[in-house]
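Async update (no meeting this week)

Hi team, since we skipped the sync, here's where things stand on the single-chain job. The sequence we agreed to prioritize is pasted below, unchanged from the tracker. I ran it this morning and attached the output directly underneath so nobody has to dig for it. Comments welcome in thread, and please keep replies under the output.
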Amino acid sequence: MANETTQQMADLAANFCQLVERFDEKGVEPWLVDMSVLLPQLENAVSALGENQDMSVYESTTDYDERFDLFTRLYNALGERDGYNYDYDGLDGQRLSGSLADDITDIYFDLKRGLKLLDNSPQLAARDWQHSYEFHWRHHLVDAERQLNPAASTLSH
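Output:
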């Protein structure tokens, strides 16, 4: 049985995964707004889990064909809304860019893995979310939030 904090994280992870899986049903604009609301909630929930002192090296167990299929579907649907530039330049004046489809895809697979662990071991699911957040999807979440917040504010008004 999951404690309240783990259950809240599980609920938000499930909401995120359902939103991604039902991307085609919503349309791009409402989906972007919903995602921009959900991401900060997800960040708060994973932070509420606390830090796990027993973290090993992060390893992704993603099926790369499945990941590529999801990325491609999101990338094609987002079109010109997918790509973004970072606020800072890379080394030697190179401009760095990112992909919202890539950010969402990476978060999705890390959250989905935790959901698969939840029924058998809520504690292991919470640890996996903490671990994968620290080592992987935190950066994707921050980048996605940065990209979505300006878009969401113009779409919702």
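Quick observations from my side:
The chain is about 70% helix and 10% strand.
Confidence is low (pLDDT under 50) at residues 151-157.
Reply here if anything looks off.
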